[in-house]
Design a protein that fits this description.
The complex is a heterodimer. Helices cover 76% and strands 0% of the residues of chain A. Chain A is built from 13 helices and no strands. By secondary structure, chain B is mostly helical. Chain B has one domain: Serine Threonine Protein Phosphatase 5, Tetratricopeptide repeat (Alpha Horseshoe), CATH 1.25.40. Chain B has eleven helices and no strands. The longest helix of chain B has 30 residues. Chain B is flat, with a radius of gyration of 25 Å. Chain B starts with a helix and ends in a 16-residue tail after the last helix. The chains are: A mainly alpha, B mainly alpha. At the A-B interface, helix 4, helix 10, helix 11, helix 12 and helix 13 of A face helix 1, helix 3 and helix 5 of B.
Chain lengths: 319, 254
């Protein structure tokens, strides 16, 4: 059903004139934009995704955390914390990216298959509200998942830190107080680092970007599998984009085909490496406010652009 | 179809706008020590196909950790060659993790070198010593590359100073690296003192060592530690410092 068809359906229904004289039966004036309509679609999308048991991912994450922390007992505390942080944040990044792609890829095809989409669009719901509501639902799911995973990670890190602090205090019970204080400071410095917070926000923004991009791809894709396959390719190419861009901008040699390929990669794909800051943050690199804000803005910019493009293509989609 | 083409055109226009933004952001990231890994043929050869793909898809920290755990297992099985190979991959993937450089160097210069020296399969001592020296050099190389990748962090300078002191018995170079560490932010408070100690063992540098130790001594009680006083007294005797300029004997702590 196109917009024109939807419009004609509404034109054939009785107009406001036919209700004149009976104020109680007067229909509410239709607003072009309604936050409550978007919220209704958002909450419905979140409920649907929750019913799909996507939160089982969190269980896998929990098991991974517990398993790795037991396994790492044989390492020194610096090694243990390094690996715990790397594995946890890597898993958060992987699971949020997977959730973003898989949950979004099946959204439109499923609504078309279940005919839910027609029911919604047959009502006075503009298509952009439908798309915005849907993407907001996925983003909410990602936010909840990220928060739960981060909370689990911080809890495990805190417990391990306390265990190591106690062990260190016991080992150095007879040492001079300043030596003990130094040792405890070293343990604390190896565990939680406040720079992890912006790193985690950047991971979330990368997942938001992937959600919007998946939605854009799914507006012209023919099936869920196609969208997922395309997104997997985009994911890999996006991580290579920086290399392609630098080669292209530096005007290195190579034939015409190579240069065109590099230009296509550099222009059409997002630079996903820009959002992989957390590896270096765990390694001890401090993240400045400028780096955080610029990277976050890039993530928001991409999310908005891909959402707008998804809305644009969805308006022309034959349903 | 038309909308698809318009969307493509918009993507290209957005691409032209975002290109300089991303280029500048990448430069800022590199300037602040992010994006420390270049994905090139060299890394591809070091990592193998699967590792390279995993690293490329944003999971280089996890790949590095998995290789680090394998290196740990190789150490437990005293597979020194495999351990070296794995540590080269680990440090290539995570050049900003000091722990990996330090652990790699320690395994090579301390553990592998001792194992080489005690190798019962090699009857010729000259060859055992040669193997030992080679492992020292590999450990040193790890630390030097680590410093090159992390020039602002004092920990690897300290580790290199320890290696020069304990393995090469080169106190001059040890003093030099402790001194370099002491100039960096977050340096340990003892780096300056250790540098002066090492210098006091260096032939021909006694006067310089004496001045530095004396300067530390004059800073107050906190620096007047037993080793410092012992080395200072040794240098006073060696340099024949006049009695009125010497530190008092009564202050010597035991």
């Amino acid at each position: 059903m196109t917009d024109a068809e939807t419009a004609s359906t509404f034109q054939s229904s009785p107009g406001p004139e036919s209700f004149r004289g009976n104020a109680s039966t007067l229909p509410k004036r239709h607003r072009v934009f309604s936050l409550s309509r978007i919220l209704a679609i958002t909450s419905n999308t979140l409920t649907e995704l929750a019913r799909l048991k996507v939160f089982y991912v969190l269980l896998v994450f929990g098991l991974l955390l517990i398993g790795s922390s037991i396994f790492m007992a044989q390492f020194s505390f610096q090694q243990e914390f390094q690996i715990l942080k790397d594995v946890s944040l890597g898993a958060i990044s992987m699971f949020t990216s997977l959730l973003a792609i898989v949950a979004t890829a099946r959204m439109l095809p499923r609504d078309i298959e279940d005919r839910t989409l027609y029911t919604i669009l047959a009502k006075p719901v503009p298509r952009f509200e439908y798309v915005v509501g849907k993407i907001a639902g996925v983003l909410l799911l990602l936010a909840i998942s990220t928060l739960v995973m981060v909370a689990a990670f911080l809890a495990v890190l805190y417990m391990r830190e306390q265990a190591v602090l106690q062990a260190t205090a016991k080992q150095l019970a007879s040492a001079p107080p300043d030596q003990l204080a130094d040792a405890l400071r070293a343990v604390r410095a190896s565990a939680f680092n406040v720079d992890l917070v912006p790193g985690i926000i950047i991971i979330f923004l990368k997942a938001c970007l992937l959600t919007a991009l998946t939605l854009f791809v799914s507006t012209f894709a023919t099936s869920t599998i196609f969208t997922i396959v395309v997104m997997v390719f985009i994911y890999f190419i996006g991580h290579l984009e920086a290399t392609a861009r630098e080669y292209w901008l530096a005007a290195h040699g190579g034939g015409l085909i190579t240069r065109v390929f590099l230009a296509v990669v550099a222009l059409l794909f997002p630079d996903l490496q820009a959002f992989n800051l957390v590896d270096d943050i765990v390694a001890g690199t401090a993240i400045s406010m400028a780096v955080f804000i610029k990277t976050a803005l890039l993530g928001i910019f991409y999310t908005v652009i891909y959402t707008l493009l998804a809305i644009f293509v969805f308006y022309g989609k034959e349903l | 179809m038309t909308r698809g083409l318009i969307a493509l055109a918009i993507l290209i226009v957005v691409g032209l706008i975002k290109l300089p933004v991303e280029h500048n952001l990448a430069a800022l990231h590199r300037q602040e020590h992010f994006r420390g890994v270049e994905f090139n043929l060299d890394l591809r050869e070091k990592l193998g196909q699967l590792g390279f793909i995993a690293a490329l898809s944003g999971f280089r920290a996890i790949v590095a950790d998995a290789l680090f755990i394998q290196a740990h297992a190789a150490w437990e099985n005293t597979q020194w060659g495999r351990m070296l190979w794995l540590f080269r991959q680990v440090t290539a993937l995570q050049p900003h993790v000091l722990l990996f450089w330090d652990t790699a160097a320690w395994h090579m210069a301390w553990n592998a070198s001792v194992a080489a020296m005690n190798d019962s399969n090699q009857p010729r001592q000259a060859l055992r010593v040669k193997a030992q020296r080679e492992y020292f050099a590999i450990g040193k190389e790890f630390l030097e590359r680590g410093i090159k990748n992390n020039p602002d962090r004092p920990e690897l300078y300290e580790a290199l100073a320890r290696l020069y002191k304990e393995k090469y018995k080169d106190h001059g170079r040890a003093a030099e690296y402790y001194a370099k560490a002491s100039t960096l932010p977050e340096a340990a408070p003892w780096d300056r003192r250790f540098s002066a100690y090492e210098l006091s063992y260096t032939e021909g540098r006694e006067r310089d060592a004496y001045e530095r130790l004396r300067s530390l001594y004059d800073e107050g009680e906190k620096e007047r530690l037993p080793t410092l006083i012992k080395r200072l007294k040794f240098l006073e005797d060696k340099l024949a410092i006049p009695p009125d300029q010497r530190i008092p004997d009564t202050l010597t702590k035991h």
